[in-house]
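Table S7 (text form). Paired inputs.
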Amino acid sequence: MHSPLRLVLFLAAASGLCAAPPPKIEIQSIANSSLILKAHDRANGTWTLQHSPDGRIWTPVATAVHVRNSVLPLDPGTGDTDPQGSGFYRLVSLSETPPKTVEHMLNLPATVHPYAEQSVAPSSLARTVGEATINNHRATLGRVLFYDRRLSLDNSVSCASCHRQERAFAEDSDFSLGHIGAKTTRNTVSLTHVRNYTKGRGIFWDGRRSVLEDAVLDPIVHPDEMGLSLDSLVTKISAEPYYQTLFTNGFGTTEVTKERIATALGDFIEAMTTFKSRYDQGTANNFSGFTTKELAGKSLFISRCTSCHPLGNFTTGGFANNGLEMNYADRGRAALTNLSKDEGVFRIPSLRQVALSPPFMHDGRFATLREVIEFYDHGIVAHPNLTAPLTATPMNLTQDQKDSLEAFLNTLTDSTIQTRAEFSDPFRTD
């Protein structure tokens, strides 16, 4: 059995094609002597993958490898070309590239997905969730844009880099990394049910945007996040042939504008609704399927938490100071308004999908739901702006009450959002 330590990866130079940093092959993992490789090429070139046992004689593993979206899983090959943990790999540039049609670049359904229809709330939730205006073709375009790394300056990150589907379109770290590796200054929150924040209340932790179509452009132009000017955004997207069909389907012509990009992203994000959690199902049958513990947690939640997290939306859509500390390192809305009453005031996030989207708070300080419960039980600081009815007086919940509250919060999860194809990365990886 060959030792994985003997594996060396080599990348052939491609004159005129490589962007900085140069293309490379990454060893993602080695398990049971099987290789998992990825090609990283921000210029999205076409290559031949080759293998050599000794660095002298090279055998093609794949005749053509097209990196469609900066990163591509590679098949290390089988039989004579499978080194089982030893040897060399290289990518050799191909001068001829296939046309970048929708079919070549993307895995999209033959019939457009009914985003608008699926986002309609059941009658038991319609009053609190509200309506959305979604065009299915524009949402499809928005899905492609959401995952396209071309929306960043160096093709390294996309919207989905920080809003990950498996995390209910949130992030699993306290802060996310932008295109230059710089950290964001606030925790990434879930995009599911974003319409809860788009009725004039304000989007982002500080509410600096009130319209979703404005909000989606902010991370693109932010120098530490995606770092791309709006003019460059339009130029880059206009240069990709596969977008011509998508823009025509969504808007009637091939013209690319920042407004159209924003509208398409907004439609896709606003379609991220989920109505199959155990809580949602319970609203239709008087929660007959809830356990004793979950019912107890629901009663406790109603008595203690619904002033900020009312049932249905599980957010008022407003803002609050929840007493995290006396002197906030992040001023919250006060950095926007410069008003003392806004010191430490942040948007109240929805608790839908909360179990899928740790860590919690604007700075990701709490790693688990239990830590959040412990904080509200006895950790609130008596800040001058503390939002009523919160107080610094400990609730002194019993362990059983804490368990019940956590059990109820887990019923707000609809895990189907993690794998639904219509919200997944549409770029082909074959």
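Next pair, protein 2 of 2.
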Amino acid sequence: MLNIVPGRTPVTTELSAGELHTSKGGFSLVEQNAALTPSNLIVVERMGQKAAPFGSPMIGFKYHDAAVGELFEMPAMRGYVTRLASGGRTEPHEEKFDRLIVAVTNLHLGHQFDERNQTETSLKAGDVRWIAKASDRSIVNLAGTACSFITIEFN
């Protein structure tokens, strides 16, 4: 990937699938694929009014057969990566913020809001899904293999 900022020397970066880069912004940028093969790139930019800092911990929920790691935190948005083993799950927790899910691997997740309100989400690696905030929700990996996804929360 070639990153071009007007008035500066272009910078070449190599990105792996699922890799995340952040920037504080405030400048114009052109991103150009320098490879000979097509590349998928997801750019998320928070627009509009300034947001207050988050008033709760980034990963304020318990999980089982899973690993969760912080990626970045800014006043308007923050991100973390989750890896769930087959059958791995989170305990019910309040999700106070809208979020964008980016599938790093293929996903088949179950979402349970209460005993009567259950849904499923299937995404292919690279797909994204907007999920509105919800209270008392748990997530379980319904696939037969481990999965990974990046969550970007918006304040």
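The longest strand covers residues 77-90.
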